[in-house]
């Protein structure tokens, strides 16, 4: 009886037809719609919405297609471990904390973040936009990078249209236009941006990221707060590498991670990429594996060569140089490596300074096109001569 009563109740509730009286029909229809609405609300609460999932899974860009958590393991590590909060961003603490204050107060000026590659400029801007805009992140951010058409027409049409567009925002927040790799924008486009920045200043903020701030025209620089990012220190990169290695359950040695830090040269993107390549290629993170993957002259070999130079032994030093040359490394690869190794070497301070000067001068010659083995041998000869002088 109970089941029958329940079925009747549901039928009665859901089925708006079959009744003669018109008013009653409308009432039933209203009830039916209300019931549907309830059902919809209920299903939404039970199943997590796709939008919130996206926010967590795709930190890399505001308009990327959704990635399911199960697909996350196939992401390159630079994307998988891209920070989504300011606290996770390594290094440049002063600049990041300044941005943190802007974000909490909500009063963000137009900003330019300038700095070398792979130190977290794009990441920082995306974090800022995410904190400021919360759930409106997708609609209220226009992200343009060097892969997009960014001539004068885009500024005139796309950026202006976005600035005029009405979007629901959290209180006292503005839309954000992210111009990544802004140093590749043409001067015309930058000129066109000047007035747009002012006209829509009450509704839109601009965040620019670039490697070379000199390529941003002065009037744009004067409209923005300039924030400079520097290369990350070896300790900062090492800490991140340890964290990622542990999360990925990698087999690693301290020397292996140090080798990655050496090859990365303050670039976190390069460090994570090298870590992943070594892990995929060899499984364990050891110096030999790292230098095979990164295809750099082995620093231990280079260090040995410089030690021979510091003892004034040109024959032994030349043997190593000839070996490196035979392995196919270019003069630029070798000289860069010699410079980095010489900085870390345990030499008398004065000798070290002279060594670095000689290495720098040879580097200049190589960049000018004198990139033969003779140049490299000449460098070794001069270094040996210096050592004899100081002995
Ligand atoms: N400071 C950092 N802290 C943590 N991870 C970082 C940091 N900098 C870079 N990374 C890692 O490197 C990746 C690339 O960083 P990002 O895109 O922000 O570099 P960028 O400074 O914009 O470089 P580019 O000038 O080449 O555009 C990130 O996905 C992240 O995994
Ligand atoms: Mg970038």
From TrEMBL:
Residues 107-239 form the AAA+ ATPase domain. It is found in: Nucleus. Its main location: nucleus. SUPFAM superfamilies: P-loop containing nucleoside triphosphate hydrolases, post-AAA+ oligomerization domain-like. GO terms for cellular component: DNA replication factor C complex; nucleus. GO terms for molecular function: ATP binding; ATP hydrolysis activity; DNA binding; DNA clamp loader activity. It holds the Pfam family AAA. Keywords: ATP-binding, DNA replication, Nucleotide-binding, Nucleus. One of its GO terms (biological process) is DNA repair. Gene3D superfamilies: 1.10.8.60, 1.20.272.10, P-loop containing nucleotide triphosphate hydrolases (3.40.50.300). Belongs to the activator 1 small subunits family. This is Replication factor C subunit 2. It comes from Lutzomyia longipalpis. The lineage of its organism: Eukaryota, Metazoa, Ecdysozoa, Arthropoda, Hexapoda.
């Amino acid at each position: 009886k109970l089941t029958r009563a329940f079925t009747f109740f549901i039928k009665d509730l859901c089925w708006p037809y079959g009744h003669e009286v018109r008013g009653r029909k409308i009432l039933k229809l209203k009830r039916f719609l209300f019931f549907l609405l309830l059902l919809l609300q209920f299903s939404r609460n039970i199943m997590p919405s796709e939008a919130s999932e996206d926010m967590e899974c795709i930190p890399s860009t505001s308009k990327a297609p959704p990635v399911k958590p199960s697909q996350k393991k196939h992401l390159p590590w630079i994307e998988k471990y891209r920070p989504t909060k300011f606290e996770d961003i390594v290094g440049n603490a002063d600049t990041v904390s300044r941005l943190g204050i802007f974000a909490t107060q909500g009063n963000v000026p137009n900003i330019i973040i300038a700095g070398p590659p792979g130190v977290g400029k794009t990441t920082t801007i995306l974090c800022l936009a995410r904190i400021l805009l919360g759930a409106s992140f997708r609609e209220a951010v226009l992200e343009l990078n060097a892969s997009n058409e960014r001539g004068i027409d885009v500024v005139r049409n796309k950026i202006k249209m976005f600035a005029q567009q009405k979007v629901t925002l959290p209180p006292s927040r503005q839309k954000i236009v992210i111009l990544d790799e802004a140093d590749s924008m043409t001067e015309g486009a930058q000129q066109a941006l000047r007035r747009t920045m002012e006209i829509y200043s009450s509704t839109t903020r601009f965040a620019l990221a670039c490697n070379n701030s000199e390529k941003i025209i002065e009037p744009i620089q004067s409209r923005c707060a300039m924030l400079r990012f520097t290369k990350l220190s070896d300790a900062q990169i090492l800490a991140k590498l340890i964290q990622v290695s542990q999360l990925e359950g990698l087999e690693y040695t301290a020397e292996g991670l140090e080798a990655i830090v050496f090859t990365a040269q303050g670039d976190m993107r390069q460090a994570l990429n090298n870590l992943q390549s070594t892990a995929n290629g060899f499984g364990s993170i050891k110096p030999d594996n790292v230098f095979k993957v990164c295809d750099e002259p082995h620093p231990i070999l280079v260090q040995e060569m410089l030690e021979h130079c510091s003892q004034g032994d040109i024959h032994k030093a030349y043997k190593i140089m000839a070996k490196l040359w035979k392995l196919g490394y270019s003069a630029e690869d070798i000289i860069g490596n010699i410079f980095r190794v010489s900085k870390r070497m345990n030499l008398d301070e004065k000798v070290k300074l002279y060594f670095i000067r000689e290495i720098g001068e040879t580097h200049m010659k190589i960049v000018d096109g004198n990139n033969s083995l003779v140049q490299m041998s000449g460098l070794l000869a001069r270094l040996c001569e210096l050592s004899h002088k100081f002995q």
